[in-house]
Amino acid sequence: MSNLAQLAPDYIRAIAPYQGGKPIAELAREMGLNEADIIKLASNENPLGISPKAQMAIDEAVHTIARYPDGNSFELRKAVSEKFGVAHNQIVFGNGSNDILELVARAFLHVGCEAIYSQHAFAVYPLVTQAVGAAGVVVTAKNYCHDLDGFLKAITPKTRLIFIANPNNPTGTLIAKDGLKAFLKQIPAHILVVLDEAYDEYLSLAHQSEAIGWLSEFDNLIISRTFSKAYGLAGLRIGFGLMQADVADVLNRVRQPFNVNSIAQAAAIASLADDDFVARSYAANQAGMVQLTQGFKQLGLEYIPSFANFVSFKVANAAQVNQQLLKNGVIVRPIANYEMPEYLRVSIGLFSENARFLEVLEKILSE
Ligand SMILES: *Cc1c(COP(=O)(O)O)cnc(C)c1O
Prior knowledge:
Layout: H1 10-13, H2 24-31, E1 39-40, H3 52-61, H4 74-84, E2 91-94, H5 97-108, E3 114-118, H6 124-131, E4 135-139, H7 148-154, E5 159-165, H8 177-186, E6 192-196, E7 221-226, E8 239-242, H9 245-254, H10 262-272, H11 275-298, E9 310-314, H12 318-327, E10 330-331, E11 333-334, E12 343-347, H13 351-366
Parallel strand pairs: 1-10, 3-4, 3-5, 5-6, 6-7
Antiparallel strand pairs: 2-8, 7-8, 9-12, 11-12
Helix pairs in contact: 3-10, 4-10, 5-6, 5-9, 11-13
Bound molecules: pyridoxal-5'-phosphate.
């Protein structure tokens, strides 16, 4: 051992690595299973795949990869600007929306500052906070929901940033719009609020976010969106943030010049033009959510009602049940690292995948 790791600052060495969903190929290797016999419901991916229009755009863009991508994502910027009604200079593109979260932390946090986020909130908030040596302040959740009053009480002179996931992952809980807006009004102007809306496309019209319309009212608001979930482009890594132009300018200074590859840009443009694919994805998710939650009820299992494309359910010996599911070729997500050791999170899959998951789960629970 070189002991070189000791040269990294303590706050870096204290970071717990991100635990993603187990890849299908890895489980196949570990259990000696065929990849074709494995279903993965562990990373909130779109079971319908991607838009056929995006697929065509990808096939074309593949021929351009000898060139660097457009570092300003001009065409995509135009498409996002038109679709969401924001100015070109209010948009920052990221290598996944995780990149946006990290850019915000790198630009606005440093040693001695605090970032606030909820218990059971998305694991990337503590990661990006700790990576720059800032302190994470965790607000105890209320019934697995963000406790916004708790956030207000947690604000100190050191607070620079607040992360809110709406809906939240892994709980699937949603903060109502009026409560969220009232909360924003109470946040001091010098504290940035990142509103992570990765699952907005899975919300019913009545619940869908209106936060983009709030940007003119709250200079400190940053909204992050992703192409990884309803648009199905998780493997291409592309997301974006919407914010005031001066905040966007700062993020662009710390952004890698070519952080979004050309295939991702082309696929994102085509995806934005295919409302039909998003509508089909939404409908499939609604049906799958009913299928899974009815299954849980039949099995007598508690679950947290979810507004997203996954649901967390409670089960005795969650770690053991997870192992049994893996042995049977079903990958879900254990969430003990989210302080939810009695829960497993399952992503909504195709009808047949949901059915197989419920069947295997029933068998395990009856053994
Ligand atoms: C999946 C997810 C994202 C998306 O991450 P990408 O980097 O865009 O793939 C962002 N926020 C939350 C809360 C998520 O669950």
